[in-house]
């Protein structure tokens, strides 16, 4: 089974947001040419062609409100229950609302994770505003997913530095399962150190094709980190087919390859 640990099904307003100007430029997309609505097939078709069995579909919530709402993701989950795994997002400024929303998404709509992007809030993950979210994730037995490393969008990168911020979270919440997406570059060694140090810390490789993986990450995946790294694409920013086409370049043995492409995600997301 192939599981993509990080994708989005975007809406046009999300794609047109000014902070994504750099990404659209890299993708060769003209924001003015986006359609008024983006059909499900935009995402399901790409996964089908790539041979991706399931994908973690992410909501986005920032200080300005939801960019991709939990209800939009829930609609996709109901329409394609065998394809998508839901990752909800919440408003860090309203802790009790955030706790209630996570519980609603998990208990009513079957979401399997929470995802928040520290750069979107300009708040590192050890900020007090995350802590009710962490406690709720532990209580519900779901992972907390976030971005680590520098930002492609035109936003500050410092909140994505793994040490000291994420290190402190893992120390204070040892039961919390943490998935750091986007590998942590240029602090990849810091992220590898955390995944080695803490049993419940993982890395997903979304936003990078295998040809761009740092050598130290490849070495980690080949050896003692084979159970700690998850495949991800970050669609629509990168096509999952393009990522999967390069996996054999990593030199993984059969066990490590199977764990990377799906086995680790099955365990982490409780599938």
Indicate the CATH topology.
TIM Barrel
Number of helices: 12
- Total separate domains: 1
Q: Strand pairing plus helix content: what structural class? A: alpha/beta
Number of strands: 10
Description:
This protein is an alpha/beta fold and 271 residues long. It has a single domain, classed as Metal-dependent hydrolases (TIM Barrel). It is 41% helix and 15% strand. It is built from twelve helices and ten strands. It has an eight-stranded parallel beta sheet with strand order 1-2-5-6-7-8-9-10. α9 links the parallel β8 and β9. α5 runs parallel beside α7. The longest helix is centred in the middle third of the chain and has 15 residues. It is globular. The chain starts with a strand and ends with a helix.
Concise structural overview:
The protein is 41% helix and 15% strand. With 271 residues, the protein is α/β, with parallel strands linked by helices. The chain has a single domain, classed as TIM Barrel, CATH 3.20.20.140.
Secondary structure topology:
Layout (H helix, E strand, L loop, with lengths): L2 E5 L4 H5 L4 H7 L13 H10 L3 E5 L1 E3 L2 E4 L1 H10 L4 E5 L6 H15 L3 E4 L1 H4 L9 H10 L3 E4 L14 H11 L5 E4 L6 H10 L3 E4 L10 H8 L6 E2 L9 H5 L9 H15 L3
Parallel strand pairs: 1-2, 2-5, 5-6, 6-7, 7-8, 8-9, 9-10
Antiparallel strand pairs: 3-4
Helix pairs in contact: 5-7
Task: For this entry, give a set of tags.
single chain; 271 residues; alpha/beta; TIM Barrel; eight-stranded parallel sheet; two-stranded antiparallel ribbon; 41% helix; 15% strand; globular
């Amino acid at each position: 089974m192939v599981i993509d640990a990080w994708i989005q099904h975007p809406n046009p307003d999300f794609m047109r947001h000014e902070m994504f100007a750099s990404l659209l430029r890299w993708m060769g997309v003209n924001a003015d040419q986006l359609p008024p609505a983006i059909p499900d097939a935009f995402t399901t078709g790409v996964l089908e062609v790539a041979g991706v069995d399931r994908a973690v579909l992410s909501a986005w919530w920032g200080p300005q409100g939801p960019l991709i709402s939990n209800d939009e993701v829930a609609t996709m989950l109901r329409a394609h229950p065998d394809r998508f795994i839901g990752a909800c997002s919440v408003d860090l400024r309203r802790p009790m609302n955030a706790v209630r929303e996570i519980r609603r998404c998990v208990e009513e709509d079957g979401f399997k994770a929470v995802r928040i992007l520290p750069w979107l809030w300009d708040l590192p993950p050890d900020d007090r505003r995350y802590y009710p979210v962490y406690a709720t994730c532990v209580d519900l037995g779901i992972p907390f997913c976030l971005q680590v490393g520098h930002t492609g969008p035109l936003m500050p990168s410092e909140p994505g530095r793994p040490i000291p911020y994420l290190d402190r979270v893992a120390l204070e919440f040892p039961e919390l399962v943490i998935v750091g997406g986007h590998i942590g570059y240029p602090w990849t060694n810091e992220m590898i150190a955390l995944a080695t140090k803490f049993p419940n810390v993982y890395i997903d490789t979304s936003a990078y094709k295998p040809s761009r993986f740092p050598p130290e990450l490849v070495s980690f995946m080949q050896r003692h980190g084979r159970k700690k790294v998850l495949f991800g694409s970050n669609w629509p920013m990168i096509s999952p087919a393009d990522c999967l086409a390069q996996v054999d370049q990593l030199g993984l043995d059969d066990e490590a390859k199977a764990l990377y492409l799906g086995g680790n995600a099955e365990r982490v997301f409780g599938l």
